[in-house]
Records
---
Amino acid sequence: MPATILSMDEIINAICLHMAERKAVRVADVQVELSWEEDTGYTAEVWIQGRSQYLVESNMIEAVLRYVHSEYGIRAYREDVRLELDEEITAIVNT
């Protein structure tokens, strides 16, 4: 079973695209910062038009799923995706 690995930049792009579509703004108007904390796990802070919002891991995975479908033509499911932290945060999509 091959895996597709998304870099931290691709995860950020996925979240930017996802949030721009959901909030009806331009992708360039979305800023994202990823983080991992022991007590909260993976999160993304998103800034749109001066407002900040936090996404939890499940929201991040939803954005990754949409991204791999639109960019790679991969139809994956939530259980096929896991986020990992090494030097940076990556997403592993098992297909």
---
Amino acid sequence: MTDSVPESTSPSASQWVVQSVPPEWQPPQGLIAAAAANAGGSVIDIDPAWVDDPDGYVPPGAVRGLFPVDEQGQLIREYRRNTAHTPPRDDFRNLYVDNEVPLMVLGDDPEGTVRAYLMNTVTSQVEGTEVEWIWVADIPGHQVAGKPIENDQVAVTRVALGIPFAMSVRPPERDREVLAGTFTIIWAGLDEPERRVRLWLDLGESLEWAVEQFPTRMHEV
């Protein structure tokens, strides 16, 4: 599976290992056509175990490698293997970047909590849907609200967490789909005996858009 390289998909330069292509190797017609359409660029090799549509969201781990293309749209006989390529899997590493307060609210198993929230949201819409992998696509955004207490301190009462994500789902008797957008979790009543939680799954929406909704949504919960 091949396509041109989106900037968000292409791994960092340090992850490429250059390999020569045997002289007898003949590229498939699809690769030749993709190269002609991307003169001066590259054509990436995408693992079909991850995604079916190379024009949709492609996690960095799904990129097996790339073929450079010269200015005439011809393949350079060189293959750059992506050392970060893996079999399909969850990736929650971005969840832990600059995210101390929301991580405290997520509990002892942040990854399990986010996965359960996402799975429950998807399966509640289409019963029997299987989630194959979840990718936290970027560093989440968060916002905290509170109320003043004694000694000039503030008690945290509400927390909003927006998670840019992609996930592969397989509804019953349907083809696999890759959903992408921002998943928002809002907790309220953190200073009360029982806290409240509400979830939003905004497909196709950016983190910036979701953050703009935080103030209104935090007071809806």
